[in-house]
Amino acid sequence: MDEQSAGATGSRSTSRLVVDVVRALRGWVVIAAGGVLLLSCYLGVSAESDPGLQLPYLASGGLTGLALVLIGCALLIADRIEATRGGGASAAQARLAEQVDDLHALVVAAANATPGAPAAAAPAPDIRATPAQVAVPAPAPAPAAADDGSVYAVSGGRTFHRPGCELLAGKSAQRVEPSQVSARGLSPCSVCAPILVA
Predict the structure, then answer these.
(1) Please, which pLDDT band fits residue 54 given cuts at 50, 70 and 90?
(2) For 17, 156, 168, 197, which has the most beta carbons within 10 A of its beta carbon?
């Protein structure tokens, strides 16, 4: 079974290679055919001294050869664009798959967290990421034994939260006063639904 799958994979890669070579050469073959027609046009025109007899060579060989050269150039450009776009698409698909994996890990961590308890520890950083991409999670604010009405916000955020809100897990949040909440235009979190005590 493994030999059959390996053979099928080898056959697919060989046929893909043949297709790629044919696609790379088709533009050059069309350009070469156009060049041959242009050369025959030149030889036919140069052999005739009467302009009336030169015209058929120009109409058949010259225009057709020029058209084939232009079509061959267009094929080469189209192949180059498709190869460039194909490489970018595979990189974008790999990045999208990585982001979906990260999102899945966050959803699983949020689902496993019990209500009222601090959020679960952030998942381990992805070892495939470069050091610049790995974010070191900051400790979440310690939840108060009883909800004393204090609220927290992330700098640059638009919402304020209760101390144990799972959206604050792994983020550096600071306690904010009611005057700061109104001054910054913060709105209450839709997950933990904090109540602002004046």
Answers:
(1) confident
(2) 168
